[in-house]
Amino acid sequence: MKIGPVVLDNILVLAPLAGITTLPFRLLAKASGCGLVCSEMISANGLVYGSAKTQELLNSRIGEKPLSVQIFGSDPGLMAEAAAMVEASGADILDINLGCAVKKVLKTGSGAALMKTPGKVEKILLAVRKSINIPLTVKMRTGWDKSGSDAIKIAEIAEAAGVDGITLHPRLATQGFGGKADWSLIADVKKNVAVPVIGNGDITTPEDALVMKKETNSDGLMIGRAAIGNPWIFSQVLSLMKGGERISPSLSERFDAMKTYLATSIDCFGEQRTCRMMRSHLGWFVKGLRFSGRFRESIKRVSTQKEAMSLIIKYFEELS
Ligand SMILES: Cc1cc2nc3c(=O)[nH]c(=O)nc-3n(C[C@H](O)[C@H](O)[C@H](O)COP(=O)(O)O)c2cc1C
């Protein structure tokens, strides 16, 4: 799949997940064969007004390339300025969030709220398109109308404004994560635009990815929640696509992934911050394993790298 001139190794995309798709997480997905990784959504205001915490979200490493960085906001001028900053940081693709349905974001007229105001979307996209040379994409939801008319309208506006790709998570803005993603709308959007369409929503198993591809004819497949603590889903989908088997990660692969995730996080965020994150994050990787509840409990108060490592080692000794 190609997004503008950016050629991807394959059609699999890691979804932007706020608070989760940090650089260490993205590197794991990439190592498992994911074709394109995405940053979490980054506030355009935060970037333009120089928030150090926001700026840090732009950090990247060569090993995760190509990287798509997502911004959110509602002011065309600010979005264009933030987009230029993202380009200057070395990102390969700029994505605009038209799908976030969290109240705090909707209240500012950003995210999925924009799907109510197609004129504003057009202004934002035209301003951003002018301000950057890297490929531009949008990620949206079904919007506010069950028929899917908002999504089709926004897709057409986006294409006319010069976007290089469109991701659709076909749930209404009012739906949160309830109900089921309506994959038929991905097929509808795909029929209405010429740019690549990336389907997203409810790929929970490697097999689901193949079904979505077949049912929707989408160009790309984006996986979010199913990749949390499970970067192997990308290699599993790739294997199935080649007619191979779905190979489960061995205990030592899980162990290595946790060790790598811990070490890279310490490198990126320092020991204290990382340990606070690891209190919940390490538990992602042991879902479904024996004694996982006990392990999760044991890491709840972890405060040093050494302690985290010894708890991981102890747990895997118990398992093997
Ligand atoms: C914890 C969490 C954080 C998310 N953060 C973002 C975000 O920053 N930007 C975005 O466009 N979507 C975000 N999403 C939505 C996902 O990218 C994706 O569209 C959604 O989870 C459906 O895909 P899935 O069923 O594969 O998880 C988030 C979802 C979750 C669960």
The CATH architecture of the largest domain: Alpha-Beta Barrel
Count the domains.
2
- The helix count comes to 14
Strand order of the largest sheet: 3-10-9-8-7-6-5-4
Let me know the CATH homologous superfamily of the largest domain.
Aldolase class I
- Unreliable segments of 5+ consecutive residues: none
Q: Rg to the nearest angstrom?
A: 20 Å
Structure description:
It is a single chain. With 320 residues, the chain is an alpha/beta fold. The protein folds into two domains: 240 residues, Aldolase class I (TIM Barrel); 69 residues, Non-ribosomal Peptide Synthetase Peptidyl Carrier Protein, Chain A (Orthogonal Bundle). It is built from 14 helices and ten strands. The strands form two sheets. It has an eight-stranded parallel β-sheet with strand order 3-10-9-8-7-6-5-4. A two-stranded antiparallel sheet has the order 1-2. Helix 11 runs antiparallel to helix 12. The model has no long low-confidence stretch (mean pLDDT 97). The structure holds flavin mononucleotide. The site of flavin mononucleotide has 21 residues, from strand 4.
